[in-house]
Amino acid sequence: MEIVDNEDVASCVCDSLAVQPNKIPLYINLECSLSRFVNESNQDHIPVALSSPYEPLVANSRLDNGDDIEEDEHLNSNWDNESPMDDVEIETKQPMNVESAPSSSYRSKRRHIEDYENVLVVGQLYPSKKSLKQHLGMVAMRKNYEFKVKRSTSDWFEVGCVDPSCKWCLRATKLQDLAYFEVRNFYNEHSCSLDIIHRDHRQATSSLIGQFVNSKFEGGTSRIYKPRDIIDDACVQLGVNIGYNKAWRAREVALEIARGSLEESFTIPPKYCAMLERKNQGTITHIETDEQNHFLYFFMAIGASLKGFRDSMRPVIAIDDTFLKGKYFETILVVACQDGENQIYPLAFGVVDSENDASWSWFLTKLKGAIGNVENLVFISDRHGSIAKAVDCVFPEAHHGACIFHIANNLQVKFGKKMKILKLYNTTAKKYQVFEFYTLMEDIRKIKDGEICKYLEDIGYHKWARAHFMG
User: Of 39, 117, 408, 463, which residue is the least packed, with the fewest Cβ within 10 Å?
Assistant: First the structure.
């Protein structure tokens, strides 16, 4: 059934509840995309949808005149089951002209709608018990009171004030054959003392704070918004004090809302790979899983990069890895070259569980399948043992050299950050003539009682020195 206006919404709910339309309190959110508004501007209806408590709740006809929202007399009724909106007609208005600025009446209406988000009324519908609890918690923090759950089942939710002598309470039940929860009874007067309220609000959970700060990441998750910022915003805007750990967990909740969960993200690569291969001719992708269909490895080489490597690049490949920041601590593998202007030319990428023999062997096997047999191929990498084993196994005809930058860093770690040693080592490594190389090595032998020279000899001159490298 397609829902396009108020009558369709009312009919849908009425069919499920088998009651009269004017007896159902509906809170709806008016939505209209720009493209549909332009194409159907002459029609007399706009799309509507049932809203969650965190979406703008539709005001009734009182908002159309810009009147203030007053507390309904039914809010203070003593568990009266009669709906407070029996006689309210829900009206829809055509959206304002997209080319004109918002009018003062529109801004007034929007302000009242935002105020209405903090209101709880009998008959209010929620898509789930979780959304009801979130709305209750947000209202409680903003109005500076606390509540506790008295009873919670799959079809019943009842809460009361933390002060046993206070009569404030709310009861909601699940609609038959629907997932929605409806507020049945609500007594909205607090008789408790303000002394019962603590600064560490019991409703200020990491999940609820995460919902509150979610808007900070609407423009993109790359924004710098630290737990300390969340602590400050919660104190200023909600009046509650939270610790650093709770602020950190709230930030993780907000990021998950913005990005999606990490577990769900593992369902994206198959679709992404299929689209890459379809739109980029010659692209090669592979996804490896275990017996339980859990993710293990990923390989990707764009077709244009492969073609450029075969046609124009020097057969020198640099391979390296770095860790990913995330829950599962994966490792990304990178294959790159240098073009004629010594600029970095990306060739292939991979994601594996960690840097080990199995992962490097799998990755280089897929790389060989992508680039084929290349004459005089040279690999440059750090001195990780798994890389050396994989290169020797998968590319036995290729030459494998050690990156002089990594060796220089190791020299600093082992023998101190002396510029004389580093300059002498770099000069020695880049010499083409053998006799010039050995002359400089004698100078290196005089430093640190020959320890540096022995370290470089153990690596092997053919791994890092131009004068001895066979590639």
Answer: 39
pLDDT tier, 434 (very low <50, low <70, confident <90, very high otherwise): very high
Average pLDDT over all residues of the chain: 76
Query: What is the spatial distance between Cα 215 and Cα 205, in angstroms, rounded to a whole number?
Result: 17
| Cα separation, 85 vs 27, whole angstroms | 10
User: Within 13 A of 47's CA, how many CA atoms are on the CB side?
Assistant: 11
Handedness of CA 20, 24, 30, 35 (dihedral sign): negative
- Strands 295-301 and 284-289, by their bridges, are antiparallel
Phi and psi at residue 296, in whole multiples of 5°? -120, -65
- Tokens at residue 265, please? 């993200």
C-alpha to C-alpha distances, 419 to 95, 328, 384, 412, 425, nearest whole angstrom? 70, 39, 25, 9, 10
pTM above the 0.85 mark? no
pLDDT band at 42 (very low <50, low <70, confident <90, very high): very low
Q: Evaluate whether 143 touches 188 at the Cβ level (below 8 Å).
A: no
Classify 75 as helix, strand or coil: helix
Q: Is the dihedral of CA 253, 255, 260, 265 positive or negative?
A: negative
Q: Which region holds residue 450: left if phi is over 0, alpha if psi is between -120 and 50, else beta?
A: left
